[in-house]
Amino acid sequence: MSLTGNAYWTEQDEDKLVEYLYNNRSRSGDGGSFRKPVFQEVSNILTPLRKKGGPKTVKACQNKWATLKRAYNVVLALKGVSGWTWDDKYGANITPELESSWAAYVKVHKDAEPFKRKGWRHFHRVSEIIPSVVIRGTRVYRASNATTGLSRDRESEDRTPRYGTRRASQIPNPASAR
Q1: What is the C-alpha separation between 26 and 32, in angstroms, rounded?
Q2: Kind and range of the H or E element at 105?
Q3: Which residues contact 165 (CB under 8 A, 6 or more apart)?
Q4: CA-CA distances (angstroms) from residue 156 to 37, 59, 67?
Q5: Is residue 52 within 8 Å of residue 158, measured between CB atoms?
Q6: Residue 16 φ then ψ, to 5°
Q7: How many Cβ atoms from other residues are within 10 Å of residue 174's Cβ?
Q8: pLDDT 10s digit of each residue in the chain, 178 long?
Q9: How many CA atoms are closer than 13 Å to the CA of 77, on its beta-carbon side?
Q10: For the purposes of burial, counting CB atoms within 10 Å of the CB of 46, is it exposed (0-12), middle (13-18) or buried (19 or more)?
Q11: Of 40, 63, 50, whose CA–CA distance to 13 is shortest?
Q12: Dihedral angle at the C-alpha atoms of 149, 154, 160, 162, nearest 10 degrees?
């Protein structure tokens, strides 16, 4: 058994990667992306456990996560195809009646082929790491970019009314004018 070359991923390795990222999902960015230190931590956990292949380097963990995210998006798309049902155990569960529509779909979406009659056990965990909708734009509020710890300078706070408005105490009471 060789412990060199490319990283070899067992189901248990994938499970540990997904579990670690799930437990650290608060550290993810838009679209379920993680910074290098998170992958370094998971690499440190996975590398000593390997039984085959090269070490689970930061790059290997990043690549595996990218592959898992692609699989998630494929399954998400399959779940949305009209007329098909998704099963966590049997995947798209294509029956003979659906074979022609499956063939047409796979012709365009080649990554869907493995899910014809096989589910994907990571879907639910990964769906909690990756938001299903990522809103983009310059005016989108992101808590991770918010400024904290602001203190108000009460000395410079302008307490005078603006634009000709008056406080209620400055408005004459018509009843007292009589």
Answers
A1: 10
A2: helix 99-108
A3: none
A4: 42, 52, 54
A5: no
A6: -65, -40
A7: 7
A8: 556 688 999 999 999 999 999 999 999 988 889 999 999 999 999 988 988 898 999 999 999 999 999 999 999 999 999 889 999 999 999 999 999 999 999 999 999 999 999 999 999 999 999 976 655 666 766 666 666 555 555 554 555 555 555 555 566 666 655 5
A9: 16
A10: buried
A11: 50
A12: -20
Beta bridge partners of 54: 7
State the Cα–Cα distance between residues 124 and 109, nearest whole angstrom.
22
Look up tokens 């998704």; give the residue.
86
CA angle 106, 78, 24 (to 5 degrees): 125
- pLDDT tens string 129-140: 997 665 566 676
Contact 115, 72 (CB under 8 A): no
φ and ψ at residue 3, rounded to 5 degrees? -110, 35
* pTM assigned to the model: 0.71
Let me know: does 71 contact 78? Beta carbons within 8 Å. Answer: no
Q: What DSSP designation does 53 have?
A: B
Going by C-beta distance under 8 Å and a sequence separation of 6 or more, which residues neighbour residue 116?
A: 91, 92, 94, 102, 106
Average pLDDT, the chain: 83
Q: Could you give the angle at the alpha carbon of 14 between the alpha carbons of 11 and 20, nearest 5°?
A: 140
